[in-house]
């Protein structure tokens, strides 16, 4: 489904085209910061890229499998609320965000996600939802 996004604005709310933004990380580039990884993971939910979500999830905390086929909501907007560390030279970081979705009923989800840098790559470790 990610091919359907080429030429369109990236869902992560940077204003860039998908292929210039999260698409390159979905294709294999390494996200340089925890915030970039957070944005690319949000976009993976939008484009239903479960493989990317699993690949960027800390092996110690990720589930055995993940399916997005029957996801009851469609995410459409991401607002980054706060970022703590998670830069190119950090080993840990936290990103607080609000993700908006369409569904029955529509709504939003706030979360503080924790990221760890392992062998030069950022991984989602855990999240705390409000």
TrEMBL record:
Residues 33-127 form the YchJ-like middle NTF2-like domain. InterPro entries: NTF2-like_dom_sf, SEC_C_motif, YchJ-like_M. Signal peptide: none annotated. Transmembrane segments: none annotated. Pfam families: SEC-C, YchJ_M-like. It comes from the Bacteria. This is YchJ-like middle NTF2-like domain-containing protein. It comes from Corynebacterium hylobatis.
């Amino acid at each position: 489904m990610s091919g359907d996004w080429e030429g369109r604005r990236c869902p992560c709310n940077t204003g860039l085209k998908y292929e210039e933004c999260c698409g390159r990380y979905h294709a294999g580039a390494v996200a340089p910061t925890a915030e970039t990884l957070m944005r690319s993971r949000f976009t993976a939910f939008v484009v239903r890229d479960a493989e990317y979500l699993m690949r960027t999830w800390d092996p110690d905390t990720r589930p055995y499998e993940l399916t997005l086929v029957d996801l009851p909501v469609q995410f459409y907007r991401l607002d980054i609320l706060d970022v703590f560390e998670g830069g190119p030279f950090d080993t840990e970081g936290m990103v607080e965000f609000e993700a908006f979705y369409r569904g029955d009923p529509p709504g939003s989800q706030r979360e503080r996600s924790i990221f760890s840098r392992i062998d030069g790559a950022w991984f989602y470790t855990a999240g705390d939802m409000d």
